[in-house]
Amino acid sequence: MGLTTVVTGIGELVTNEPALGPTPLGLVPDAALVVEDGRVVWVGPARETPQADRRIDVGGRAVLPGFVDSHAHLVFAGDRAAEFEARMAGTPYDGGGIASTVRATRAASDDELRASLARLVAEMRAQGTTTVEVKSGYGLTVDDEARTLRLAREVTPETTFLGAHVVPAEYAGRVDAYVELVAGPMLAACAPSARWIDVFCEPASPHAFDGDAARAVLTAGRAAGLGLRVHANQLSAGPGVRLAVELGAASADHCTHLTDADVDALAGGGTVATLLPGVEFSTRSPYPDARRLLDAGATVALATDCNPGSCFTSSMPFCIALAVREMGLAPAEAVWAATAGGAAALRRTDVGRLAVGTRADLAVLDAPTYRHLAYRPGVPLARALEV
Ligand SMILES: [Zn+2]
């Protein structure tokens, strides 16, 4: 038995457990929660709180499961502020700028990459994120992808091999040879440090991969024991979403341009639609239609896609505000997508909700209700609660 801590004075607790309270958020007013050894051991009304060794009173604030950011690219060096500035002046985004991050990342030392990664993870935690997925994809050689994933594994178990991010400059015009490298020696070197494999499936980009190349990479990853995720339908209605559903991927990410067949596939399959509205904000692009996906019956997650090119925000509250303002989600739906939805996209049941046995990953708001996340955009209300 470890030390027990009661978190009390919770004005509104979001549990995402409908058995514990009304709405899909499982809301409990005037709540308390007891934690032992990093796990929730009791949750309920504050007036019924059992004895505990320590007590943290949050003074009427709202508490929710820590955000689950299921899509981020955090291991990189360099800066692309100038590319952002040019984009705001009218230069369209096509993924070509990734090459400059690849050059800077290859040139950086392990300690430089480690320091930058730690800073970004701390920045996320300070905004309420307690689980983050981290992808490789700025090394694009066997050694640089493998070291990226070793560094990522130091901060999260949710590591994703993205050797098929773009075709690196030295393989220009030789996509087939690069796909063979990714699905062969690079995968073998990266699989020990990776839980997932991902591919940027985008026939509309001259830098990314078509459906056949994506299938080759994903099936090789699956044979190596990795779970599947896909960058799908970001720039055009390509084959990515249907490939993700067909192969049983945990998540199809972006889903900006969807046909009716894509929506039907997501609604009928076991693949989560992960929406990344920070990308549309930062590339001045049309937002995905989250309402259409939810109304069809798909499971929707929200994530940041934090990366130095298309979207350099680490803020899940910002993404929630965008989802409500720009994508037709109710505040409750956006909060669910940023917590339980992210957990579903990572096939986790121990995060993204608060019930007996889950991890005690808590976010606290300087606000009385989760509604303030969208109601007060840009205000730093959320932080991870140290228990
Ligand atoms: Zn991404």
Explain what you see.
By secondary structure, this protein is an alpha/beta fold. Helix content is 35%, strand content 21%. It has helices at residues 81-88, 98-107, 110-125, 142-153, 175-190, 211-223, 240-246, 260-268, 277-283, 290-296, 316-327, 331-345, 372-375, and strands at residues 4-13, 28-36, 39-45, 54-57, 62-65, 67-69, 129-132, 134-135, 159-164, 196-201, 227-232, 251-254, 272-275, 300-302, 362-365, 382-385. Helix 3 (110-125) packs across helix 4 (142-153) and helix 8 (260-268) packs across helix 10 (290-296). The longest helix is centred in the N-terminal third of the chain and has 16 residues, at 110-125. The radius of gyration is 21 Å and the shape is globular. The two termini are 16 Å apart. 55% of the residues are buried. The site of zinc ion has 5 residues, from loops.
How would you describe this structure in keywords?
single chain, 387 residues, alpha/beta, seven-stranded mixed beta sheet, seven-stranded parallel beta sheet, 16 strands, 35% helix, globular, binds zinc ion
The parts where pLDDT drops under 50 for at least 5 residues are: none
Helix percent band: 25-40%
Bound molecules: zinc ion
How many beta-strand elements? Answer: 16
Shape: globular
Distance separating the two termini: 16 Å
From N to C, what is the helix and strand string? EEEEEEHHHEEHEHEHEHEHEHHEHHEHE
How many helices does DSSP assign? 13
Q: What structural class do the secondary elements suggest?
A: alpha/beta
Largest β-sheet summary:
7 strands, mixed
Proportion of residues in extended strands: 15-25%
Average pLDDT number: 97
Radius of gyration: 21 Å
